[in-house]
Amino acid sequence: MLQYIIKRLLLAIPILVAVVTLVFFVVRMAPGDPAQVMLGDSASQESLISLRAELGLDRPVIVQYGEFLLSIMKGDLGDSIIRKQSINTIIADVLPYTIELTFAGVLLGVIIGLPFGVFSAVYRNSVADYITRIGSLIGLSFPAFYSGILLLLAFSVYLGWFPVVSDPDMDNLGERLHMLVLPAMNLGLIMMAYVVRSSRSALLETLGEDYIRTAKAKGLPGFIVLYKHALKNALIPVITIVGLYIGVLVGNSVLTEIVFNRPGLGKLILSALDERDYNLLQGLMVIYAFIIVLVNLVTDLTYGMVDPRIRKQ
Amino acid sequence: MNTLARFKRFGVETYHVFNRNKTSWVGLLLLTILVLIAALAPLIAPYDPVEQHIVQRLQSPSTDFLLGTDYYGRDVLSRIIWGCRVSFVIGSVSVAVAMFFGTILGSMAGYKGGYFDSFVMGVMDVLMSIPTLLMGLLIVAILGPSKANIIIALALTMIPRFARIARAPTIAAKSKVYVEACQAMGFSDIRILVVHIFPNILGELMVMGSMWMATAVRTEAALSFIGLGVNPPTATLGGMIREGFKDIMSAPWASLYPGLVILLIVFAANLLGDGLRDALDPKLRNDK
């Protein structure tokens, strides 16, 4: 197992370096002079030169790249020139909001999705199974910004149960939870669709195994076969769902934050784009890459721990 | 078997695949209708999608404007019809590009093996660890919002998925006796790949193609919604939601109808892919 962990860790490093490299060079491909873009067309020659020096743009790209890698290894994402602030601080300020939202969304998705998936698999090809499957297909077809707008219209505007702008005071727990409900629901409903589908197909696969037939042949009651024998094994692939759909999850959290006007990494991306703050954009992409690689690593390791076949390898 | 017979057999097989699963027919039908609407946009759109009827701003749906008008007095229905075009062009071209390069890279990697394989699949792993929307954001924000840039961004994240599909069966087929026989007869690598390996993965490519088409359309809409879509005043479905969102209280039709159409396109493509996958899955095939 230790060997497996080390191997997985070593595999994650080159991917991270490569993603960071890709982000760095794509950002450098921006047309025009970043200093000019930041200061506008009316900037004087002196201020352009001094900003270029401040940004390190007067040095060769390869030197800039080396320094960028080095500072990232030290955990420093650099400074936002527009906001005159360390990018680390800017991101750390809003990160809890995004983490809270994502956790709540995934939790909601799994809690509601799993029973539906099990139900759908057990009553396979029934009308209820059919409706669940079509429903989950509609769910995962929903663009997160559209479902967000519909939720906002229904629950905030017409029913007035929730505020239209979710910018909670983090110290006020009641307000925090109240403002989390709708965005988390938006993320959770789409996540639920993925959970329903993967738990259904995983359970269907296990239900077809020989040991299930054996358990049934022994005369065990149906629900014991289902919960003790089938579901336990079917849950293993479901654990990887977060890792598998982390891309969808990240994309949807960005859109959810924008629609609900909720602080977080996604909202930050939008302002980085508006302000043409390429340093901040670059920092955000690096953070996202870290989060994704980390989540993949954790799901792989959990999978390894739960599944004896991988553990023993 | 000559090429014509091969194609005929493929057509018959595809038909049977569709018949095994009715939902794929529904998906195909829906998608065909939507594609037709997009293709015939100049003929069926009642108004010019960028023509502004300033005195008739934010009109609710009526016989003159079936789905109402937006903030600039443009006909929502006409803009939706033209917007479908952008969605389909970007969706299908990006999938086609990704399928082309992905299949070539994946099957070459599987066929050649060794360092080439490790290198190609390593690059694929990197590309796959960036979510489609973020890749779109990054590339379009830096290189500018044009159809080509959006297609490049979408294709980049989709290439690895197709490479993976193509690689595994290539490795499996490489050690088969008939492939060795082909090599012994001196057939070129390309011919072996195209004639003997490609047909085996065609089914899965179709499934993935339609599923990723759904993702591509949804992502393009999301980019337009964020403000990184094809430049206005070109009508895009996501862009219409972005513009209509401001007047959602007084004129919900300007943003809700385009959203419904995005949902419909994505759903149809997913339905088609899902049905095809069930029909092609040997495990699910026999027990219905």
**Largest chain-chain contact?**
A-B, 46 and 44 residues
Radius of gyration of chain B: 22 Å
Largest sheet of chain B: none
Number of strands of chain A: 2
In which range does the helix fraction of chain A lie?
over 70%
- Note the gap between the termini of chain A: 8 Å
What is the domain tally of chain B?
A: 1
User: How much is the average pLDDT of chain A?
Assistant: 84
Figure out the total of helices of chain B. Answer: 12
Beta strand count of chain B: 0
- According to CATH, the homologous superfamily of chain B is MetI-like
Oligomeric state as shown: heterodimer
Order of helices and strands of chain B: HHHHHHHHHHHH
Coarse structural class of chain B: mainly alpha
CATH fold-type name of chain B: MetI-like fold
Fraction of residues in β-strands of chain A: under 5%
Assess the beta-strand content of chain B as a share of residues. under 5%
Strand arrangement, largest sheet of chain A?
1-2
Which descriptor suits the 3D outline of chain A?
A: globular
What would your notes on this structure say?
The complex is a heterodimer of chains A (about 325) and B (about 290). With about 325 residues, chain A is an all-alpha fold. Helices cover about 80% and strands about 0% of the residues of chain A. Chain A is globular and about 85 Å long. Chain B has one domain (about 20-285): MetI-like (MetI-like fold). Chain B is about 75% helix and about 0% strand. The two termini of chain B are about 30 Å apart. The mean pLDDT of chain B is about 85. The interface of A and B includes residues 19, 153 and 289 of A.
Topology diagram in text:
The complex is a heterodimer of chains A (313) and B (288).
Chain A: H1 2-28, H2 34-39, H3 45-55, H4 61-73, E1 79-80, E2 85-86, H5 87-122, H6 127-141, H7 144-158, H8 173-207, H9 210-217, H10 222-239, H11 241-244, H12 246-259, H13 265-274, H14 278-306, H15 308-311
Helix pairs in contact in A: 1-14, 5-6, 5-8, 6-8, 7-8, 7-12, 8-10, 8-12, 9-10, 12-13, 13-14
Chain B: H1 3-20, H2 22-39, H3 41-44, H4 76-112, H5 114-128, H6 132-143, H7 147-174, H8 177-184, H9 189-226, H10 237-245, H11 253-280, H12 282-285
Helix pairs in contact in B: 1-11, 2-4, 2-11, 4-5, 4-7, 4-9, 4-11, 5-7, 6-7, 6-9, 7-9, 9-10, 9-11, 10-11
